UniProtKB/TrEMBL annotation, chains A, B:
Protein name: Aspartate aminotransferase
GO MF terms held by the record: alanine-glyoxylate transaminase activity; L-serine-pyruvate transaminase activity
Cofactors, names only: pyridoxal 5'-phosphate
Any Pfam family hit: Aminotran_5
PROSITE patterns: AA_TRANSFER_CLASS_5
Biological-process GO terms, alphabetical: glycine biosynthetic process, by transamination of glyoxylate
Sequence positions bearing N6-(pyridoxal phosphate)lysine: 190
Superkingdom field: Bacteria
Domain Aminotransferase class V: 24-323
Length: 383, 383
């Protein structure tokens, strides 16, 4: 017996109560029973996003919500700055260009967070910039950008901050209203412990006013239509009903545990993995500003990460992710968001060291699992 | 004890094996296990669509696939004709206008199918027309349009036929290649017996060539990107994984039963409901060209359908749908597609008559349930 353990940075494993709720028979999306679920889910999403504004529900992947944000907030010809620090930063650029926006790319070394001064300089230089597109957590590198400062800067400049919170919301703090974020979005398959297929997006009052000025926002991703619908406890089109039933379960968990405790767990898991990886003798990609839902581990030059990944899967049952773009073959990404605990990670550290050595790497580490586990509990207690 | 029976024209009830498969734990969408599922699903979808072309998979509602069809097949400024015979015909018009197309509306009385001569006349009159947008089955009225003839006509004229098969595919014959349909699409929550959240769309070679000439097809609904992905057993973005696992189950059922037998069952259920409704003394909305997945029943003038629907639900446990747009309050729609059998419908006929009388209608029908059930088996045997 060898259980498969999927520790990828999304999708993430599903808790049993969520899985069972996904198996429920269909209900109709225009009937009172479903409206009650939407109403309950709405409260949970507002708590999760830290906002008083409605959180709109889209039946799409997270990329759909990114497209919705760009097409509803900006008109062709407008200028935006994209913080490009990885694959998902690049995706912002692609989406913005498809929309016909002028894109100022603020390129950041993959593995590093944007420096707020550099963003400030760009905003000074290009006065026509109408918004900043950024990730809270860049899933391709495991970097956490300074969103509070970015939102703050945008507020001062009177421009729109658009934050892809796909691997951040429900994982590390990103309170929309408190930080003054204008548009925050996420997907269902990361911190929320659901299958992919739903995306969530919320707009500040300022952002909503801007959306009202935009023509040709798109038919499927029309945030004004969704905004009007959600106020009536509906979605504009037929939504992914069983995922919404699952979402109700998952959000109940967030409310019962409390966001703060979930963040604590995420932080402690992150410190545990980082400690373990260092003890194994491997290097971390993100040294300073690291996200709390995944950890990117560098492979030594000449050692193909895919070889390690393959042993991890075949021999130890651990499904991890490799690198994307220029990092393909060079890193391993350990996902530890959502329904993942310290024991899942302890086994993962063991499997990582063994697979690394079997793939030709050198590591004589001993006692690293216990020491990493100790860090988990120490971090929990200290926070 | 009173079981709730949902007989709406989508979403539809889910078979147990589908529901249990939806509860499976997550797998990763870029790993071999998932690719195998996609490969298997692809064969099943091609069988369902009656096509040799790839069937593209979108994570969205059916409306998303309608948007994808319009935005990928036509450029702003091009002219299309829309067959508007109900709410979903109107939706084609809205989507086409949002895309900036010139729309020639061919309005058809709600409850009737388009006459092929009238469509032919329109195509003669407006030489600039590049495509026809139509429903196979108009879900708001229960009408079946003559798709084979429409596709044929489009072939002759060298224009693109775009068929919304949302309440037709897997319910009544609509073989894409045989009939020469250029673009056929459907959603997961009708004949396919799945929750909503997935949409499927396939393009003829001619249609694919046209897509290649279109700029700004959209970022999320980019059919060229999806076409390239599916050839590698992938989807362009993270897809609704658990729905795809459920789809594999549902398509297995189609292959095991055989499409012809499923159509037979659908036809027999339709004749059963129509017979029962007539015996109750109620009128059918679609007299001639009726679809096989739902039946729209007229309420006598002065009797509000919502009153009947409410009794059906509260007293008898039957969840049916009302009318949309101008038919609101005037009709009841009985869904009998997907995981619905003749016993479900027998109870529905009983409940319909009783609820109708309790809401103030007059019906002295007797023995109508047996006679309707007899029609079911007679139709099955004769077909």
């Amino acid at each position: 017996m060898k259980k498969t353990r999927m520790l990828t940075p999304g999708p993430t494993p599903l808790p049993e109560n969520v899985r069972l709720s996904l198996a429920k028979d269909m209900i109709h999306h225009r009937k009172p029973e479903f409206k009650k679920i939407l109403q309950d889910v709405q409260k949970g999403l507002q708590y999760l996003f830290g906002t008083q504004e409605p959180v709109l529900i889209l039946s799409s992947s997270g990329t759909g919500a990114m497209v919705a944000a760009v097409n509803n907030l900006f008109s062709p010809g407008e200028t935006v700055v994209v913080v490009e620090a990885g694959k998902f930063g690049e995706r912002w650029t692609e989406i913005a260009r498809e929309r016909g926006l002028k894109v100022v790319r603020l390129e950041v070394e993959w593995g590093e967070a944007v420096e707020i001064n550099k963003l400030s300089d760009v905003l000074e230089k290009f006065k026509s910039i109408k918004g900043v597109l950024i990730q809270a957590s860049e899933t391709s590198t495991g970097v956490l950008h300074p969103i509070q400062e970015v939102a703050n800067l945008c507020q001062k400049k009177g421009i729109i901050s658009v934050v892809d919170g796909i691997s951040a919301v429900g994982i590390s703090p990103c309170p929309m209203d408190k930080w003054g974020i204008d548009c925050l979005l996420t997907g269902s398959q990361k911190g929320l412990m659901l299958p992919p297929g739903l995306a969530f997006i919320s707009l500040s009052k300022k952002a909503l006013e801007k959306v009202k000025t935009i023509k040709q926002r798109g038919f499927y991703f029309d945030l004004l239509k969704e905004h009007a619908s959600i106020l009536k406890c509906q979605t504009a089109y037929t939504s992914s009903i069983n995922l919404l039933v699952g979402l109700q379960e998952s959000l109940r968990y967030f409310r019962e545990c409390g966001l703060k405790n979930i963040y604590k767990k995420q932080k402690a898991l992150t410190e545990m993995v980082r400690e373990g990886v260092k003890l194994i003798g491997l290097e971390l990609l993100a040294l300073k500003d690291y996200t709390w839902g995944l950890t990117a581990v560098k492979m030594p030059a000449g050692l193909d990460a895919s070889k390690v990944l393959s042993i991890l899967k075949e021999k130890y049952g651990y499904v991890l992710a490799g690198g994307q773009g220029p990092l393909k073959g060079k890193i391993i990404r350990i996902g530890h968001m959502g329904y993942v605990d310290y024991v899942d990670l302890a086994g993962c550290l063991y499997a990582l060291q063994k697979s690394f050595v079997q793939a030709g790497g050198v590591s004589g580490a001993r006692n690293f699992i216990e020491r990493a586990m100790d860090i988990y509990f120490k971090t929990l207690e200290e926070s």
